[in-house]
Amino acid sequence: MAERVIPLVDQRHALAAALPTRPVAATGLLADTLGRPLRDLRISVTDRCNFRCSYCMPKEVFDKDYPYLPHASLLTFEEITRLARQFVAHGVQKIRLTGGEPLLRKNIEVLIEQLAALRTVDGTPLDITLTTNGSLLARKARALRAAGLQRVTVSLDGLDDAVFRRMNDVDFPVAEVLEGIAAAREAGLGPVKVNMVVKRGTNDHEILPMARHFRGTGTVLRFIEYMDVGATNGWRMDEVLPSAEVIRRLQAEYALVPLEPSAPGETAERWGYADANGQHAAQAGEIGVISSVTQAFCGDCNRARLSTEGQVYLCLFASQGHDLRALLRGGASDEALASAIGHIWQGRSDRYSQLRGTLAPDSAAPAGRRVEMSYIGG
Ligand code: SF4
Q1: Considering only CA atoms, which residue is closest to atom 2 of ligand 1?
Q2: Is 263 helix (H, G, I), strand (E, B) or coil?
Q3: Ligand 1 binding pocket includes 313 (Cβ within 6 Å)
Q4: 78, 154, 160, 179: which is deepest, by most CB within 10 A?
Q5: What are the residue boundaries of the structural domains of the chain, listed by start?
Q6: What digits encode the pLDDT tens for the residues 70-114?
Q7: Whose CA is nearest to atom 4 of ligand 1?
Q8: Run of H or E including 344
Q9: What is the pLDDT of residues 138-188, one digit of tens each?
Q10: 169 beta partners
Q11: How far apart are CA 228 and CA 231, in angstroms?
Q12: Mutation test of ligand 1: which of 38, 235, 269, 292 has the most ligand atoms closer than 8 Å to its C-beta?
């Protein structure tokens, strides 16, 4: 059993977001030091979750004594929307709501309505989506759709009930998540995407059963390589099943053809089920692999992450954020907030996954200081 690191310090500290001496205007054309635009904002609306997936919120660490954030420190929906408006003015076109488990945040439909009213710099509606563990989805799907949510991504790490209960570590039945996926489809929150984190020796035997189950249903199944996120999951490289191996296993049963990315900065590599002529059989659908460990995609990473208390993180593997809440609650104007966000992004050079293999153990963000995925969203 891999050794667990219990963080002794609260790694949720942040730099004060500075107001640049030369204001950065919101033109929608912002780029970081590697020329990457800002297109995708992930907003964590809670640091709580009702699951304890070992690769994200291991039970031994996230127990009843864990210092979860007091409600007063969370951004209100109005504050989230005000900050989101500045990110959109800088070019954001897609917002993903995450957590913890975002559906645990009370009245989240109200936030979705507010975000759905925003428009991109070209005047088009934002692409608003949400990542959930599906436990509350069956009850909430219709209301989320009515509020303006367009799509959902559901995390599901196995079909076998015993395997799934072990992975979520709270004995939650797989049937209820499958009901949630069906309810999301019926409510028009599609195409529904399903994300499976593959851990060698734990659930990799579920790859083919999951593919058989979702093939031809319109649901897009993606296999995610187990990642060294945060400081608490005891990550080991020998528990990573490279995506190339996942594809090989699927090709043992199905013919697959590579598909073009559906948008710049897309994290998943798409593969379509092929017909007898080797063409993509659209009715059979597609799968994806997300290979942060073996095939890094930092080159066109256009994602920023906003924590539930208003800190901006520029990479999933970052160790420090930039505190916008202090500016927000300190009376800063929209222009000042936009300028601070622009300044932060312009200084961005993050590409941890690209560098992972080349970093000397002590030069990478020491494992003890990487921010938790449950705090900034996956
Ligand atoms: S490691 Fe960081 S920079 Fe690279 S793709 Fe992931 S979030 Fe983006």
Answers
A1: 315
A2: coil
A3: no
A4: 154
A5: 14-376
A6: 999 999 999 999 999 999 999 999 999 999 999 999 999 999 999
A7: 298
A8: helix 334-346
A9: 999 999 999 999 999 999 999 999 999 999 999 999 999 999 999 999 999
A10: none
A11: 8
A12: 292
